[in-house]
Amino acid sequence: MIIPVILAGGSGTRLWPLSRELYPKQLINLVDDKTLLQKTVLRFKGYNDIEPPMIVCNDEHRFMVAEQLREINVNPDTIILEPIPKNTAPALAAAAALIALSRNIDPLLLILPADHSIEDIEAFHNSLKLAKHYASQDYLITFGIIPNRPETGYGYIKTGDCPQNKEKTFFQNKAYFIEKFVEKPDLNQAKLYVDSKEYLWNSGMFMMSASCAIEELSKYAPEIVNACKKSVNAGINDLDFFRLDKNSFNESPIDSIDYAIMEKTDKGIVVSLDAGWNDLGSWDALWETGKKDKNNNVIKGDVLTYDVQGSFLHSTSRLIAAVGLSEHIVVETSDAVLISPKNKVQDVKILVNILKSRKREEAISHKKVYRPWGSYESIVSSENFKVKRIIVKPGAKLSLQKHFHRSEHWIVVKGTAIVRNGDKEFLLREDESTYIRLGYEHRLENPGKIPLELIEVQTGRYLEEDDIVRFEDVYGRGN
User: Fold this and answer.
1) What is the pTM for the complete model shown?
2) Burial of residue 210, with CB atoms counted within 10 A of its CB: 0-12 exposed, 13-18 middle, 19 or more buried
3) How far is CA 19 from CA 16, 70, 281, 349, 417, in A?
4) Per-residue pLDDT band at 479 (split at 50, 70, 90)
5) Are the C-beta atoms of residues 110 and 210 closer than 8 Å to each other?
6) Beta pairing, strands 117-118 & 156-159
7) Rounded to an integer, what distance in angstroms lies between the CA atom of residue 235 and that of residue 162?
8) Torsional sign, CA 83, 89, 95, 101
């Protein structure tokens, strides 16, 4: 039995401005009409020995994760909520500890980041079969990508002897003992690694039994195991999620699976993989994997070019017109535009850190913000008023709430709304409106079969989202 453990807690800062803290890259359809999370889960289709996945994600993203799984008709084993990010080793420890606590089985865990791209699914499935063979013998498996170029953005794994036979050959779907892990090299060193035929790219994908994960982590990173076991034992089921205990989880050190166990264990094996893999960690990676036009450009959205070569141009809300660009990245969203040479896009995360230090909202969220009931989008904002477009999904409803610093005026433009305004409850149809006075308890519900769309006009001296007191909420959110 193999249980996928999908690590979906990253923030994807190098893919800003499309990826934001509250809407990270794994939840975005960067490649086609499926999000990266959905594509990761669908990657198991056709492989018989796979159980429903466990998803480990940020608490803030839980409803979007659940909705995206529902869209592709996947019922997950568990959605584990991390109260704070701690890197991949604590995520693995929490998943393995939850399995040990809740069931009398010792499955193989297939640990996969939610933001990778794999083109050749058959080759990936073949590698899973070989990995399963060795993981079932208590080895810890990582997947190494056969390099097709000298790459300075990835770590490397030096391969040792081949347990399948004494002949060491370098091709798809072979297993090797791990001789050592090496950090991201400079270009000259990367060329030597590739030419030697002894090194693989470190993919960050793993397979091991749940018991082996706990055993090796207990040996080399006991603080992580202890904290995560406590966090699982004190955790609670919350709707369709399992919520780790925050105080216990906070005691865990921050560490990756590589550093915590794989670089220290004597049970490590790497399985080579050539399946069109890419970690989609930056805009140049998306250019590399994208479909290119006759000028070697990858273009998405409303884009007009003249004399542009080797560039990535992505528009989401308006026209991009580019002249004379070469080897550049241009990404447009409704509230930000990124322009960078392709060889400098690794520094986008520095820009995001600057935005955060200046408390700029563009680092955290888009103008369109997703909620479990639907979404809202800021249209106009000024000192004493704000205008939003609100979409409520069929059958969904907002929390019963009130505000201390603002009043609200709702105008229905599409659909039908059930409104609670103070001690009154009534129906609003298209072109009808209501005024919510400051301090009044209120709630909005969509009883219909089509999305409810309305315009909200807020007025007051303080219009931030933290001015809210919730009294009832079907989604279990507090204030």
Assistant:
1) 0.86
2) buried
3) 5, 22, 11, 11, 32
4) low
5) no
6) unpaired
7) 42
8) negative
Please report, as a single letter, which amino acid is at residue 124. F
pLDDT tens by residue, 387-411? 999 999 999 999 999 999 999 999 9
What tokens were used for 333?
A: 């969203």
- With contact defined as beta carbons under 8 Å apart, do 50 and 207 qualify? no
- Give the tokens for residue 169: 């050959």
CA distance 66 to 224: 27
Element (DSSP H or E) covering residue 92:
helix 88-102
CA distance 430 to 301: 32
Both tokens assigned to 34: 């499926």
59 and 82 in contact (C-beta within 8 Å)? yes
Length of the chain as a residue count: 479
How far apart (Å, rounded) are the C-alpha atoms in residues 248 and 228?
A: 7
- The C-alpha atoms of residue 28 and residue 39 are separated, in whole angstroms, by 11
Sheet of strand 469-472, all strands in order from the earlier edge strand to the far edge: 424-428, 417-421, 442-445, 400-402, 469-472
> Is the Cα dihedral 294, 300, 305, 308 positive or negative?
negative
From residue 278, give the alpha-carbon distance in Å to each of 121, 143, 145, 241, 282.
13, 13, 9, 30, 10
Closest Cα partner for 5 from 161, 98, 112? 112
Q: How far apart are CA 247 and CA 95, in angstroms?
A: 17
| Cα–Cα distance, 341 to 339 (Å, whole number) | 7
Identity at 350, one-letter amino acid code? I
Alpha carbons 323 and 309: distance in angstroms, whole number: 10
Give the angle subtended at the CA of 145 by the CAs of 299 and 65, to the nearest 5°.
60
Cα–Cα dist 214/97, whole Å: 7
Question: Hey, what are 45's tokens?
Answer: 């289709």
Read off the DSSP letter of residue 432.
-
CA–CA separation, 349 vs 77, rounded Å?
33
The Cα 402–Cα 400 span in angstroms is 7
pLDDT in tens, 181-221: 999 999 999 999 999 999 999 999 999 999 999 999 999 99
Contact in structure between 81 and 62 (CB atoms under 8 Å): yes
As given in the structure block, the two tokens for residue 161 are: 């002897």
Q: How far apart are CA 132 and CA 130, in angstroms?
A: 5
What pLDDT digit, counting tens, does each position of 36-63 carry? 999 999 999 889 889 999 999 998 899 9
Could you identify the residue written with the tokens 């991949």? 88
Closest CA to 14 of 277, 453, 363: 363
DSSP codes of every residue in 284-296: HHHHHHSPP-TTS
